[in-house]
């Protein structure tokens, strides 16, 4: 069963100076080594990775944009990656989920990610922010440890 990655896991995986770097790498490697294992990524996640990994307010040594672009492209094109594109249902499904679970503005991107994964039939999500996703009954939250 494919494991989707939230932005925080991808950033931790890519940023060697991240406190969760080793944990994120271990989780991803464990998944792709499983028989039939693969990771799923959505464009939104990679766009957020570019934003976060290049931010000097978040990292003492952020990635230069050129390097971040290279790494994100390499990740997107990797053999073990399932590329998940949001379908036409995602905008309305996102609104529906936000209304149903009474979510506020800080939950828009997480809800859109959940709606995208649901539409693609992906039921597992690795994230360090499990509480943000447990509200969605169709997702199994995997917190790397």
How is this structure best described in words?
The chain has a single domain, classed as 5'-nuclease (Rossmann fold, 3-Layer(aba) Sandwich). The protein is globular, with a radius of gyration of 15 Å. The protein contains six helices and five strands. The protein has 145 residues and is α/β, with parallel strands linked by helices. Helix content is 47%, strand content 10%. The longest helix is centred in the N-terminal third of the chain and has 13 residues.
State the end-to-end CA separation: 19 Å
Oligomer category: single chain
Specify the CATH architecture. 3-Layer(aba) Sandwich
CATH superfamily: 5'-nuclease
Main sheet summary: 5 strands, parallel
Q: Whole-number average pLDDT?
A: 95
Entry keywords:
Rossmann fold; alpha/beta; 47% helix; single chain; 6 helices
Topology diagram in text:
Blueprint: E1 3-5, H1 7-14, H2 21-33, E2 39-41, H3 43-53, H4 65-76, E3 81-83, H5 90-100, H6 108-120, E4 124-126, E5 140-142
Parallel strand pairs: 1-2, 1-4, 2-3, 4-5
Helix pairs in contact: 1-2, 1-3, 3-4, 5-6
Short note summarizing the structure:
This protein has 145 residues and is an alpha/beta fold. It contains six helices and five strands, in the order E-H-H-E-H-H-E-H-H-E-E. Strands 3-2-1-4-5 form a five-stranded parallel sheet.
